[in-house]
Write a structure and sequence with these properties.
159 residues; mainly alpha; Helicase, Ruva Protein, domain 3
Length: 159
């Protein structure tokens, strides 16, 4: 037989959850429905949340959210219910687990790899085009020297 003092916390927990569900005003309930429905994807529209969509399925989903909130379920429990029925696709913001982690990290990883590649390529180009020291330059032959002087004189204004 259970002791009465063990049953008291259980009754308090049940009474508290029932009283919170019943004390929600219509406005509070509407706000909570909106908060949960904005995190769920409409299975018909797919580009809108359940809250924004006017599809019949979205209206039914909003009603389910409303009923479950009245029953005292938390927003996470309601989302878990929809995930169990539709999969992770139903969440507008995918969870960062498993392959979804690649979706979260992938763009940053590609950006880092691209940055390293760009840095190495630019460094190589700069090294190839940097001016060499005078000792490394080969002397200009006489024919080239005359050609350069001729071109410089052609650019000078007539005196």
């Amino acid at each position: 037989m259970m002791k009465p003092f063990v049953l008291v916390p259980i009754f308090l927990l049940l009474f508290t959850s029932l009283s919170t569900a019943q004390t929600l005003t219509e406005d509070q309930l509407q706000v909570r429905v909106k908060e949960v429905a904005k995190t769920l994807r409409c299975a018909v529209c797919q580009s809108e949340s359940v809250w924004e969509s006017n599809a019949e399925l979205a209206l039914q989903m909003k009603e389910i959210v409303r009923e479950r909130l009245i029953q005292g379920e938390s927003p996470d429990e309601i989302r878990a219910y929809f995930v169990s029925r539709y999969g992770d696709f139903i969440l507008l913001k995918p969870r960062a687990l498993g392959l979804n982690l690649l979706l979260w990290i992938g763009p940053f990883l590609l950006l880092a790899v691209g940055g390293v590649f760009l840095f190495r390529t630019l460094r190589k180009w700069v090294a190839e085009t940097s001016p060499a020291s005078p000792e490394d330059l080969s002397p200009i032959d006489e024919k080239s020297r005359r050609r350069i002087e001729q071109e410089i004189r052609a650019l000078e204004p007539d005196k």
